Amino acid sequence: ASVVVSLEELRKLGPKGYSVLNLIYFNGYSCRQVSNEMGIPRSTVNSQLYRAKSRFKKLFLKQNKNFFLND
């Protein structure tokens, strides 16, 4: 089974969370590179990444309730 997440859904993570996820996961940036690109401390990048991943997980599970049940 495959799951598709729309860009619209990713944008629900908020501008900061979306930007951090986009740069790291879709553009291959490191946390240091994101920090330099966005002009924020690396610890802030890590915090925003953690929050965005947590929000994404909740969003994903809400929209795909049966994903893990259908083997």
Tag the structure with descriptive keywords.
about 65% helix, about 70 residues, single chain, mainly alpha, 4 helices, elongated
What does this protein look like?
By secondary structure, the protein is an all-alpha fold. It is built from four helices and no strands. The chain starts with 6 loop residues before the first helix and ends in an 8-residue tail after the last helix.
Secondary structure elements and pairings:
Blueprint: H1 7-11, H2 15-26, H3 31-38, H4 42-63
Distance between the termini: 9 Å
Specify the helix fraction band.
55-70%
Helix-and-strand structural type = mainly alpha
Strand % is under 5%
- The count of DSSP E runs of length 2 or more, i.e. the number of strands, is 0
Radius of gyration: 14 Å
Task: Compute the average pLDDT.
Answer: 86
Task: Please describe the biggest sheet, giving its number of strands, its sense, and whether it closes into a barrel.
Answer: none
Query: pLDDT below 50 for ≥5 consecutive residues: which ranges?
Result: none
Tell me the quaternary state.
Answer: single chain
Categorize the overall geometry.
elongated
Contiguous helical run count: 4
What is the N-to-C order of secondary-structure elements (H for helix, E for strand)? HHHH
Summarize the structure.
With 71 residues, the chain is an all-alpha fold.
